[in-house]
Amino acid sequence: MSSKILLVEDDRSIATVITAALEDEGFVLHHCESIAARDRLLSEHSFDTMLTDVMLGDGDGIASLDSARAIDPDMPVIVISAQNTLDTAVRASEHDAFEYLPKPFDLDELVRAVRQAAGQRSGAEPLPVSEGDGMPLVGRSPAMQGVYRMITRVLRNDLTVLVTGESGTGKELVAEAIHQLGARKSGPFVAVNTAAIPSELIESELFGHEKGAFTGAVAQTIGKFEQANGGTLFLDEIGDMPAEAQTRLLRALQSGRIRRVGGRQEIAVDVRIIAATNRDLAPMIAEGRFREDLFYRLNVVPIELPPLRERREDIEVLTQHFFGQAAEDGLPRRQISREALDILALRRWRGNVRELRNVVYRLALLAREDVVDIDGLNEILGPEGEGAPEQRKRDFEGALQLWLADNHPAPGALYYSALAAFEKPLMEYALAQTGGNQLRASKLLGINRNTLRKRLSELAINADRFTRPL
Ligand SMILES: Nc1ncnc2c1ncn2[C@@H]1O[C@H](COP(=O)(O)OP(=O)(O)OP(=O)(O)O)[C@@H](O)[C@H]1O
């Protein structure tokens, strides 16, 4: 049976194009132009998916979603908007939109999103490939929402931003997003990895040099500050910057002027600075290895990126995003089964999003089937790292020793109380991985669904707590 789609759009020409594209694909379209008409239609019919514009004649398509949800709480909603900012993206995801498509969007992308949304409503497998929402940063976890919110606060000003987080968490991507979505987007984005430059060359790299300033300075060279004039300068690995360069950088930030190495003239530069580090700067400041005054200059707006293991719910959408990217890069277009994805999410992800991206590319390249399943995954990825099982065993034993030391179970209760202590986090983990879906959690655990339900009740675990919005 064809899926029924409700389109809320007051621009007739856009509505006509969308209707034609979706009807071609076999969807049945109902169209209205206002929030009032939308709510009337919703109370009369059931729809598989709703597509809504944001700025409508009688209100805001996102803010008013609550009244639509009051009528149909489970219907996936796709927001289409001309306000191409993270702000709208953030608002859309705060209102649990299934997808957010900034205008102008590709019709194929729209069709894919609608198919995916309508499929999700009917529980179709395997997961379709998601092409993302055109935004540079992918992920809808609460942790990333916090990051998006901070990004939106710095788009309309030039405040200096310090992005912190482990290697591979997306710090450079955040800097790029601030640049691309902010007022300086027409200017250059210049990235410097200060850790990768020999310390004697850092100043010349940042500020440039005059001809003959030092041996080898055969011509005048413009530094990164001047290259970034009118745009954004991204200073990566700021914690690794040598002391002398820190002092020069501080001076440049205070005065808004730079001097080329070997030069006399001070040159005014107009750059927005975004710095990043994967180091904890506080102990470095205490040990005198990082200037405290420079830290305060840089840390005007701190944005902290959480490690991937603290936002495992993003692994699904990131995986699909990277399968899409891999296909664009000429690798075979693959998908992943729900079960394999659940296993993938269990890995440690020490290398964070970068590691996930590399793993997905490896799967795209090496998988034998179009849909990567658990066997394919295990065959290609194998166990995590050399000696990892041994390490994990020690981790486990250590945790058990600690638990025994802390809990002193009563004689005769040792076996079952230890088992329950172990079982509870395990089941909670399986529920978290599967968004509270007990059938999938039981498959992931490899136990009978009824056994799971019984144990959940005995261990007083509330599965609803793990339910994810669509
Ligand atoms: N939220 C995200 N959505 C999509 N891609 C991401 C996301 N986060 C990171 N990536 C991708 O992961 C890779 C690593 O990200 P990035 O280089 O920004 O990390 P980083 O924190 O700056 O790392 P390092 O500290 O090692 O410099 C890049 O390919 C980037 O595009």
TrEMBL record:
The keyword DNA-binding appears for this protein: yes
Residues modified to 4-aspartylphosphate: D53
InterPro entries per record: AAA+_ATPase, AAA_lid_NorR, CheY-like_superfamily, Homeodomain-like_sf, HTH_Fis, P-loop_NTPase, Sig_transdc_resp-reg_receiver, Sigma_54_int
One CC-aspect GO term: cytoplasm
GO terms, biological process: phosphorelay signal transduction system; regulation of DNA-templated transcription
Name of the protein this chain belongs to: DNA-binding transcriptional regulator NtrC
Signal recorded as keyword: no
Name of one Pfam family that matches: Sigma54_activat
Domain Response regulatory stretches: 4-118
PANTHER family: DNA-BINDING TRANSCRIPTIONAL REGULATOR NTRC, TRANSCRIPTIONAL REGULATORY PROTEIN
Every Sigma-54 factor interaction domain range: 137-365
Natural source organism: Altererythrobacter rubellus
Function: Member of the two-component regulatory system NtrB/NtrC, which controls expression of the nitrogen-regulated (ntr) genes in response to nitrogen limitation. Phosphorylated NtrC binds directly to DNA and stimulates the formation of open promoter-sigma54-RNA polymerase complexes.
CDD domains reported in the protein's UniProt record: AAA (cd00009)
Alphabetically ordered keywords of this record: Activator, ATP-binding, Cytoplasm, DNA-binding, Nitrogen fixation, Nucleotide-binding, Phosphoprotein, Repressor, Transcription, Transcription regulation, Two-component regulatory system
Top-rank taxon, per record: Bacteria
Molecular function per GO: ATP binding; sequence-specific DNA binding
Subcellular location: Cytoplasm
Gene3D superfamilies with a match to the protein in the record: 1.10.8.60, 3.40.50.2300, Homeodomain-like, P-loop containing nucleotide triphosphate hydrolases
